[in-house]
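Fold this sequence, please.
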Amino acid sequence: MAKKINKENVKNQKKALLAQAWAILSCGWAFYLYEYILRVSPTVITNELMSQFNITAFTVGSLASFYYWSYVPMQIPCGVIVDRLGPRKVVTFSTILCVLGTILFSQSDSLTIAYIGRFIVGAGSACAYLSCLKVASDWFKPSYFPLIVGASMMMGTLGGIFGSKPFAILVNDFGWRHAMLIAAAIGAIIGVICWFVMHDKVDEKQKSKETELLIGIKNISRKSQNWLIGLYGCLVYIPLAAFADLWGVPYFMKRYGLNNEAASTGTIVIYLGIALGCLATAALSKKLRSRKRVMSFSSTITFLGFVAALHFPGLSYNEVLCVLFITGIASGLSILYFAVAKESNSLKYTATTVGFINALVMICPIIFQPLLGGLIDYSWGGSFHSDGTPAYSLEDYSFALSAVLFGLLLSRILVFFIHETYTNTQEA
C-alpha cells in the first residue's frame, strides 16, 4: 500500500514538474512572439514614418534594419549570456530593453532618437530564440527538443502575423505612436509574468562553456563550408526580411490600391506558409534522403513563386495570396541549413555554430532592407503626394524587388558548393 502511494506521489511530482516546465517555456515563447511583433512593426507604418520624419524609402529601410545592428553582434555570445545568467533573468531584462526601446521609438521627435530606439529593441531581442532552446534543454527530455524547436519557430511566424494586420488595425485606430505605446505596455506585462513564473536550473558546466567559446568560434570560422551555409541562409532569408518584414505591405498598397490592413494579408500568408514549411522540412529531408535536395527545391520554388507573384500582372490579389502561401511553404523548407551546419561541425560547438550561422543570416536585413529602399529611390521620378511623402510608382517597387529574385537565384547556385550531410543513421 505504501509503495502504491509512493508511486502515485512520484507520478504527481513528475506531472507538476512537467506543467512547470511548459509554463516556463510558454513565457519564453511569449517573449519571442512579442519581440518579433516589434521587429516587423515598421512594415505597416512606412508611410507614417516617411511623413513624420520627412524621409524617403532608403531611410525607412535603414531605420527598420537598425534593429539588426545590435541583434546580429549579440548572436554568438548569446549562448554564454543565457548560460551564465539563466533564461529568467535574460528574458526579463531583455523584455525591459524592448519596452524601453519601443517607448523611445514611439516618442521620438528626431530620426536619431528613432534609430536609438530600434537599436535598443534589437539588443533586447537578441537572446529570445536561444532562451527558448535553453529552457527546452534544461527542463525537457531530449525527445521533446525537435518538437520545441519547430514550435518555437512557429512563435516567430505568429509574431510576424500579429505584427501585420492586427498591428495595422491598432495603428489605424490609435495612430502609430499610441500603437507603439500599447505594444510597450503589453511587453511590460510579459516581463512581470516572466519574472514570477520562470525559474532556472544551474548548469555546472557553464564555466567550461565560456572558456570554449573563443576556441569554438575560431574552429567554426576557419571552415569555408560554414561561410557558404551562412551565405545561403542569408540569401534565402531575403523574402522574409526584405519583403514580408518591410516592403511587402507598401507594394501591395500601391499595386492593388489597398489600405495597410488589407495589404498586410499578403505578408500574413507568407508567414503561415513558412511556419508549415519549417515543420515539414525534416520529414521531406528523410523522404528524399538528402539535405541538399530540399535546399535546392526550396530556393527554386521560392524563386519561381516570387517571379509569378511580382511579375504576372494579370493575377488578382487573391490569386497572388495563393501563390505566396505556396511560396512561403517552399521558403520555410530552407531552414534545413541549420541542420547542415550542425552536422558539419563538432557536436560540442553546436550552440556556437547556430549563433555563428544565425549572425551571418541576420546580416540579410541590414543589407537588403535599406538596399531595396535605395533602389526604390533610384527608380523614383521625384514627385510627391500632397502630404509631402514621395509618390512612388508600382514600377519603382517592382524594380527594387528584383533584388529578391537575384538573391534567391544566387542561393540556388550556392547549394552546388555545400556538402551533403545526410546519412542513413542521422534520421533513424
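Residues 304 and 327 are 8 Å apart (CA to CA). Residues 2-40 form the longest helix (39 residues).
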